[in-house]
Write a structure and sequence with these properties.
By secondary structure, this protein is an alpha+beta fold. It has helices spanning 5-18, 23-30, 34-41, 49-59, 63-68, 79-132, 152-175, 189-226, 248-256, 327-333, 394-404, 423-432, 457-475, 477-495, 500-508, 513-543, 548-573, 577-581, and strands at residues 230-234, 246-247, 260-273, 286-291, 306-307, 322-326, 340-349, 359-374, 390-393, 409-410, 412-417, 436-437, 451-455. The strands form two sheets. It has a six-stranded mixed β-barrel with strand order 3-4-9-6-8-7. Strands 2-10 form a two-stranded antiparallel ribbon.
Length: 585
């Protein structure tokens, strides 16, 4: 004899009302929640077997009347039948408890699976967002790490394995439910394996596609180092790059610009030792070069200089009164390293900036410490100026101009772009500083440094080619995803044609179309996730680590393939139950 849960619930409700108890009061007497009492009365559940006797006592009915859900007061069943009712009640209670535990486990597994998928999706969205801003995250191309949790790709694979295990565990638990036992993957091993292999192939192809984009982007990101872009200030016609007049506003602009690196500047002066006698200009017989680094001296390097103890090329970057002299002058004067020499400095200027005729005027007299000497012969390669006799810090000379209230002009300026990919922003900044493009057709003899020459031809050609390849490949991306959806649709439609009877059987035992769809969807989702993760691992092992690109390939294949898969499943489930049952496989 089975208990009718609707009749049982109605009996509890009537007995409780006869006792004048509310659901909450009855629940407190039984030490359960009022929601549990509500479920009993609505026929949504049975009380635990241990509660039956206390429940009967609270309602002032016999245990037999409670189990019979009848207050007739006559014993309509014998002892054995009563025992059977109790056994059935225990069985129903145990089954309800087991089902609750089953669904609790399924929810935990599906929640873990959902968290893993959400994490992978967030990684992919972040990767796409970085690409959209033209940024290449360092983590995407990071080197291999010693531990799995520090290695991006291995960590993604571990997350993928977790998703597979949790999803498979949830499906296995659901198969234990009576309503879906008819679905058996084991009877379709060949089709299941084929689905997994197709997913692996699609992931591998998409990974190859994204790897191509990632490789070109990586080449583009390192292109400024492979092909550095140099620039220099010239006259308007580009005929001279040194021995010219570059205004101080431009010098300060170069120093302040974030696009400029490895800045090399110099200023040319005349000088005399100790004293220059007006009219006796043979005493003004030294060429003095102010530079901000050794690279501004062309082929002369720090290794060519014989330095005083504790000194090096960094003295040229400061404003201390220290100098490097030519070996010829050093030996002629009989100087020693560490000696001090007084130089009367004269600067060059022009009466009219439209012409190149030069004049000289006193600047400052400075006592310099000799910190090194170098052989200038054969190393100086400037075709417009003779080799200098004395080399001093550039910023020291610039400060001398400011102290004397004299407009400063540098004699040469050259530099390298810090990031050649920002070359358009750099050129715009230079235009705002007042620089023009070199115009060879313009005749200019003024020596004004007003034009910018940028050696960017090779870089622009290479960068343009890489960007064209990236844009072309990206243009096919939507079509590729559409193909994945079509592949999921066609493959599912072909492989599941023979399982129409299986679908019809599920419909015939009372499952609606939505539940049938859920059962087969979970079946296919397990296979797709297995194929996606296996394909991603295979792609990483064969094609290398592309971090977010590897994850993106797997996630996109999974989403697009399941979209096509869902369309095919819904179409198959529209088939009439009778038609499917009587159609030969």
């Amino acid at each position: 004899m089975d208990m009718d849960n609707i009749k049982f619930g109605k009996f509890i409700r009537e007995s409780r009302r006869n006792k004048g108890l509310t659901q909450k009061q009855l629940a407190e007497l039984l030490h359960v929640s009022d929601k549990a009492v509500s479920k009993w009365e609505n026929g949504a559940g049975f009380p635990d077997i241990k509660i039956l006797e206390p429940l009967a006592q609270c309602l002032e009915v016999s245990l037999l009347e409670l189990m019979q859900s009848d207050r007739s007061g006559t014993q309509e069943i014998d002892r054995k039948e009563a025992e059977q009712v109790v056994a059935d009640t225990i069985s129903q209670s145990n089954e309800a408890q087991e089902r609750r535990q089953l669904m609790w486990k399924v929810r935990i597994l599906l929640s873990a699976c959902g968290c893993g998928v959400l994490y992978l999706a967030c990684v992919s969205i972040g990767y796409l967002a970085g690409q959209g801003r033209g940024q290449i995250s360092a983590s995407l191309f990071a080197g291999q790490s010693d531990t799995w949790y520090e290695n991006p790709v291995f960590f993604y694979v571990w997350v993928g394995v977790l998703v597979i295990l949790c999803g498979a565990g949830a499906v296995w638990l659901l198969w234990k439910n009576e309503s879906i036992r008819e679905v058996k993957i084991g009877r379709h091993r060949g089709k299941s394996l084929l689905t997994i292999l197709m997913d692996m192939l699609v992931v591998f192809l998409l990974h190859t596609y994204l790897a191509n984009i990632a490789n070109n982007q990586q080449q583009l990101s390192v292109l400024p180092e492979a092909i550095p872009v140099d620039a220099c200030i010239t006259t308007a016609d580009g005929s001279r790059q040194s021995g010219i007049f570059i205004k101080d506003a431009l010098v300060q602009g170069f120093l302040d610009s974030e696009h400029v690196t490895d800045l090399r500047m110099d200023v040319r002066l005349k000088a005399g030792i100790d004293q220059v006698i007006p009219g006796e200009w043979h005493t003004l017989n030294l060429f003095l070069e102010g530079v901000n680094c050794m690279e501004a001296l062309g082929d002369i390097t720090g290794d060519d200089v014989v330095w005083n103890t504790g000194e090096n090329a960094s003295v040229l970057q400061g404003t201390q009164a220290k100098c490097i002299v030519s070996r010829q002058l050093f030996e002629k004067k009989g100087w020693k390293l560490g000696d001090h020499v007084t130089l009367c400095q004269y600067y060059y200027y022009r009466e009219d900036e439209r012409y190149s005729e030069l004049c000289a005027a006193p600047l400052q007299t400075v006592e310099y410490e000799i910190v090194g000497y170098v052989d200038m012969i054969g190393l100086w390669d400037d075709q417009f100026t003779v080799s200098p006799d004395v080399i001093v810090p550039f910023h020291l000379i610039r400060r001398s101009y400011a102290e004397e209230g004299i407009p400063f002009h540098a004699s040469a300026a050259a530099f390298t772009l810090s990031d050649a990919l920002c070359i358009n922003e750099f050129k715009q900044e230079m235009r705002e500083l007042g620089l023009k493009s070199v115009s060879p057709t313009v005749s200019d003899h003024s020596l004004n440094g007003v034009a910018l020459y940028v050696n960017d031809g090779a870089f622009i050609r290479t960068a343009g080619h890489l960007r064209q390849v990236i844009d072309t490949v990206r243009a096919f991306f939507p079509f590729l995803l559409a193909l994945v959806v079509c592949a999921g649709y066609l493959i599912t439609l072909l492989l599941l044609q023979s399982r129409k009877k299986e679908m019809a059987l599920l419909r015939s035992i009372g499952l609606n179309r939505r539940n049938c769809f859920r059962i087969f969807f979970m079946n296919q989702l397990t296979l797709v996730i297995t194929g996606v993760v296996a394909g991603s691992v295979l792609s990483v092992l064969i094609q290398g680590n592309y971090g977010g690109g590897s994850v993106l390939a797997g996630v996109l294949v999974g989403i697009c393939y399941m979209a096509g898969n869902s369309l095919a499943l819904w179409k198959l489930l529209k088939v009439s139950v009778m038609e499917a049952l009587f159609t030969a496989e």
